[in-house]
Write a structure and sequence with these properties.
homodimer, about 350 residues, 434 Repressor (Amino-terminal Domain), Rossmann fold, 3 domains, six-stranded parallel beta sheet, six-stranded mixed beta sheet, DNA-binding
Chain lengths: ~350, ~350
DNA sequence: CTGTTAGCGCGTTCAC
DNA sequence: GTGAACGCGCTAACAG
């Protein structure tokens, strides 16, 4: 049960290890007799030879692995949709994906950096998470990435350093088109369910909503921002007070999908009709959006797309020294049943 | 911008590379003067030395990577919950996770096997998918895994070979406790929404449901199995015909979460009250189960648990030659609002 | 033109 | 505590 090495193939084919390497890698500029080639090929096949990736990596100084790290739970859609995009770009290029931890060790840097230093991965894709943004570690991380010229992309961080690659979501746009969509449906009055996390992302969304109302010439005091996280009941009270007015032109904008579902739940429980009595839109999609009752209209985040894009940017960075890139991807409305 | 090797550390500390290795790895049985040790440690820190994992792997003949492969989409909960369990077990042990493809290449075997042959991964965790079960590739795969003694675990395959590790879900149990739960709530009449995929998993579920009814002494003809995939409308017709009888003792059992949500949607649309008019239970959970209207009761699949378990089994296999293991994990009811 | 020899990359570990 | 061999594949320089 011994491993087959290039030496074994060489012996079997009656040639040297060098020849084996040349043939198997189809090296240009080295001419080898077709029959020798054939011998090597069949020997390799007969022995079921597979070159050791570690030896190759050691020699080539490339592991052909990309690390993906985030503080997010790996079962969040917010993570997996992005991962899927990353995978779809990297796999065809022969890069494998290594799931990395974003925990900071005692040495003062996160595990994925250790992986990079140890050359287990050739580059790093970093996906943001509220905590990681909040704690302002981003500055530190970006500084390291920049100083050591580590091939990497910050995903959804909305970070300002001009020297690191960033692929972000245009939350302003997401909020804007969401509100715009509602305005087209006659909405003049809105309760905005906010996570209260007060991140750039959330602020941008709200700014987008405000802008759309402003451009439509609607009074801005009709937008009520509620910090649902702080006081869950308050959201429900605000919605009910709006409903009590019996106006057909009111709506709920949910900053997070979860809040959208919660709102639907509450409205259903109270017996209101959606979208007749009140319309609902969520500023993020979900694979369950078309399974809710009623099916939830959403301004969808381009998660899969930022995954793809960031992987593409990273590949470009790996192939040649390019200037840092800063990209924002727009959102897209998927109209379903909670809006008119 | 050159890489720091153990040689550099050795020079800096004024010792040999061997000593560096001994000190940094804390090798037992080798006595080294505390002050020498100190010198090496500080030199390593000053130079910011990180051993090359590829060189280590080459030498130790271990990559400290586990491959996870499935035909499933990486953004399915069915995949990610398991992945999370795997991660939670492997990470503390120093194993990284490599996401592998389950696509079969022209050489007649799947990519993850190639990774193993190339020693990029030390072991393989295989997660089933309907297609992979259907096409009966499992036999072929299991044969290879067995013949070459590849450290691996088949997850949720319900495969019969006694020579490969298997960690499965007890679907019979899931169906049984689901039905039992309903029976306790007075249910005597059931429409079972089936995926029609006709896999062992689905058959076992139905068997479990039947068994529970049988043991309760309920008439078995009250269980109507509907292949929702084949004819989506039929499910809705059956449900409506049951509702037309105006009996308070009927229920829907959804084989897939998706069908549960669809049923809720239909019932809500038609204006029925859940659970008063009809009860609903799903034979699989979801992170959205407590966001539906009403919140969906479920007999939950132990996805996170099989992830953990299979990783544990794999680790055991890697550490010592152990006999193949066959494990089935039970399901668990989470009562919510769609049942009385 | 075809194929070989030898050394490299980097950390581990045995024999001294 | 050290020197040297080793694991495995790649590739520059070289020989037939």
């Amino acid at each position: 049960m011994k491993r087959v090495s290039s030496n074994d193939v060489a012996k079997e084919a009656g040639v040297s290890r060098a020849t084996v390497s040349y043939v198997l890698n189809n090296v240009q500029g080295v001419r080898i007799k077709p029959e020798t080639k054939e011998k090597v090929l069949t020997a390799a096949k007969r022995l079921n030879y597979h070159p050791d990736s570690m030896a190759v990596a050691l020699k080539r100084n490339r592991s052909m692995c990309i690390g993906v790290a985030s503080r997010r739970d790996i079962d969040e859609e917010r993570y997996t949709k992005v991962l899927k995009g990353i995978r779809d770009v990297l796999a065809p290029k022969g890069y494998a994906i290594l799931i990395c931890s974003d925990e900071w060790n005692d040495k003062g840097y996160p595990e994925y950096l250790q992986y990079y230093y140890r050359k287990r991965i050739d580059g790093i894709l970093l996906l943001s998470h509220i905590e990681s943004i909040r704690e302002q570690e981003t500055e530190k991380v970006a500084a390291i990435l920049r100083k050591e010229k580590i091939p990497s992309v910050l995903i959804d961080y909305h970070h300002n350093s001009p020297m690191v690659n960033c692929v972000d979501i245009n939350y302003f746009h997401g909020g804007y088109i969401g509100a715009e969509f509602l305005i087209q449906k006659g909405v003049t009055q809105v309760v905005y369910l906010d996570s209260g996390t007060n991140t750039i992302q959330e602020k941008e969304r709200i700014r987008g909503v405000r802008k759309a109302f402003e451009e439509a010439g609607r009074e801005m005091d009709r937008i009520t921002i509620v910090d649902v996280r702080e006081d869950r009941e308050e959201g429900s009270r605000r919605i009910q007070s709006i409903l009590a007015e019996h106006r057909p032109d009111s709506a709920i904008i949910a900053g997070w999908v979860r809040y959208g579902f919660c709102a639907l739940n509450m409205l259903n429980t109270l017996g209101y009709r959606i979208p007749q009595d009140i319309q609902v839109i969520s500023l993020a999609g979900s694979s369950f959006s078309d399974l809710s009752y009623p099916r939830l209209t959403a301004s969808e985040l381009p998660l899969y797309e930022i995954g793809k894009k960031s992987a593409e940017v990273l590949l470009a960075t790996l192939e040649e020294e390019v200037l840092p890139v800063r990209i924002q991807l727009p959102c897209r409305i998927t109209a379903r049943e909670t809006t008119k």
